[in-house]
Automatic annotation (TrEMBL):
InterPro entries: NAD(P)-bd_dom_sf, NmrA-like, NmrA-type_oxidoreductase. Residues 2-232 form the NmrA-like domain. The lineage of its organism: Bacteria, Bacillati, Actinomycetota, Actinomycetes, Micromonosporales. This is NAD(P)H dehydrogenase (Quinone).
Length: 279
């Protein structure tokens, strides 16, 4: 069996490979694709340079693959064309199963960030390739504990509950899908512990002993703040919109699917914060 992991040199991709190996998949049966292959050289897998713009390179890398973990691209605004290259290459290479990392409630949410995911999900379904959709909610790492301690927390999520889990949980869930049967055609909504940003700030304060608070700015002022600290206008608008959507429940996802795939409880937020403080 050969499993290909795209985006393997990013945080989630590397963790997915580590989870596959931990579940008993020989490193010799794993191919990691990415732009900086030196980042996974220590894992013992076959590392290949491949960008989402390179359809021919992707097809060559997918040849003979039984399963592909398709980690969504990070370049918002460019992902539909990039993802089309991945899907077309997988189809041409006769990949046996395509497992895609999507966004929460991608087919129904008004979250701007989900638009490209919704389009990609439809591409995959239309392709005829056997698939599994993993709709990952927010990574707890999206919130920097150190920055919160130094500057406080700011956003526009109000008292909306956001289901967060560490990347390692989502990676382990993906590895479970790739190494067990019965997942084809399923869409999993994956989320961990649900917290408000006020609660997250309070937990960071409790563990660090520092006065950490959350300040809700509203969508427009939050966007302006993000631009002010250096984010491009388009990116700031997307992030501010994510908080706006979170305030109405768009990022709340029950734990059931994630915990079923993990076979254990999702990692508590308190543990993630403790790990970040030790790092």
């Amino acid at each position: 069996m050969t499993i290909v992991v795209t985006g393997a040199t990013g945080h989630l991709g590397r963790l997915a490979i580590e989870s596959l190996i931990a579940k008993g998949v020989p490193a010799s049966e794993i191919v990691g694709l990415g732009r900086q292959t030196d980042k996974i050289a220590d894992l013992g897998v076959t590392a290949k340079h491949a960008a989402y713009e390179d359809r021919a390179g992707l097809k060559a890398a997918f040849e003979g693959a039984d399963k592909v973990l398709f980690i969504s691209g990070s370049e918002v605004g460019q992902r539909i064309e990039q993802h089309r290259n991945v899907v077309d290459a997988a189809k041409e290479a006769n990949v046996g199963l395509l497992v895609y990392t999507s966004a929460p409630k991608a087919d129904t949410t008004d979250l701007k960030l989900a638009g490209e995911h919704k389009a990609t999900e439809q591409m995959i379904k239309d392709s005829g390739i056997p698939y599994v959709i993993l709709r990952n909610s927010w990574y707890v790492e999206n919130y920097s504990v150190q920055q919160a301690i130094e500057h406080g927390m700011f956003g526009a999520a109000g008292e909306g509950r956001i289901s967060v889990a560490p990347r390692a949980d989502y990676a382990e869930a993906a590895a479970a899908v790739l190494t067990t049967e019965g997942h084809e055609g399923k869409v999993y909504e994956l989320g961990g512990e649900a917290v408000t940003l006020s609660e997250l700030a309070a937990e960071i304060a409790r563990q660090s002993g520092k006065p950490v608070t959350y300040t809700d700015l509203g969508e427009e002022k939050y966007r302006e703040m993000l631009v002010g600290v250096g984010l491009p206008e388009a990116a700031a608008a997307v992030y501010a919109d994510a908080d706006r959507a979170a305030s109405t429940g768009a990022l709340f996802v029950p734990r059931d699917d994630l915990e079923a795939l993990l076979g254990r409880p999702a990692t508590p937020v308190s543990e993630s914060i403790a790990a970040a403080l030790k790092a």
